[in-house]
Amino acid sequence: MSNEGHLWQRRELAQLFLEGVRGGIPLAAEQIDVLLRVVHNVLPSVERLLDLGCGDGILGRTVMVQYPQAAGVFLDFSEPMIEAAQQKADAQRAAFVVADLGTPDWTRSIADHAPLDLVLSGLAIHHLPDDRKRRLYGEIFELLKPGGLFLNLEHVASNSAWATRAFEDIFIDSLWSYHRGQGSTKSRDAVAQEFFHRSDRAANILAPTDLQCQWLEEIGFVEVDCFFKLLQLALFGGRKPQ
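Structure (tokenized):
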């Protein structure tokens, strides 16, 4: 993980994201709905899943509600994030691992849980340099069962400056609406200033969706697709061949 990426090990930044940003992500509920529909249509059952860069574990927990027989592994390199996941997940069906996706050693920490039916990641891999992203996708491929599914709900690069500006406008509007719903009296300008000056923005290393899908195909994933896209938010992934 880059030096900027290690900001996420700071408790105050993790809390800011979980309480002040996560709930304000545009169309967050719709993204998770699409993710669940993809999982349902690809996998007849889920016995073992991995939530990679899990944050508070929202993706893994949601799938585990739909698949009550599933056991989940929640992995993040931020101890405050893992603590948040531990507070919300079903401890009898979950394991929690602190490991850094920036190095291939993370796979050793979950070796006892592989092979996996499903690997999920949400808003985490974009903190890695592009060459590391690609190698990580290869490591995920090796951990999956034949027929297993990888889905990445990610912050991706735009192909134009105007699309980036449009995304920022949508995100700020969504954050402002979310905070007002929480009782905040902050103006939109104040929310915008906080958005543009968040310390974690320097840790973003964005790659285009089509390029990342190309990497997945080159690694060996099949049925690779982008299943949802809103400017710089995308859900994409693919299956390991049977």
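The domain at 5-237 is CATH 3.40.50.150 (Rossmann fold). The two ends are 32 Å apart (CA to CA).
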